[in-house]
Design brief:
about 90 residues; alpha+beta; 1 helix; about 20% helix
């Protein structure tokens, strides 16, 4: 099955017009942009992504996602996401 390797990124956004602040989750194809999560927070972000991706990010050519937590050298984690397509 063809797939796209991607990495989970948390992006803080500040709305210029209102000053409101929020965080968004997105996927990037380059490991250099991956967010490095602390051990006590990685499971929460993975759960949020998994819950939303299964509901809202499948369909068309995208069949499902595989999520892999990978430890970095300093004890933090990056999240590699395999987007399976058909």
């Amino acid at each position: 099955m063809p797939s796209n390797p991607l990495y989970l990124v948390v992006r803080p956004l500040i709305h210029v017009s209102s000053g409101l602040v929020e965080q968004t989750l997105t996927l990037m194809p380059d490991r250099n942009f991956a967010t490095e999560f602390f051990p006590d927070e990685v499971a929460g972000y993975v759960a949020m992504f998994t819950n939303r991706s299964n509901k809202y990010l499948t369909g068309g050519h995208i069949t499902d996602y595989e999520v892999h937590q990978e430890e970095t050298g300093d004890g933090r984690f990056v999240v590699r996401v395999i987007q399976n397509v058909s």
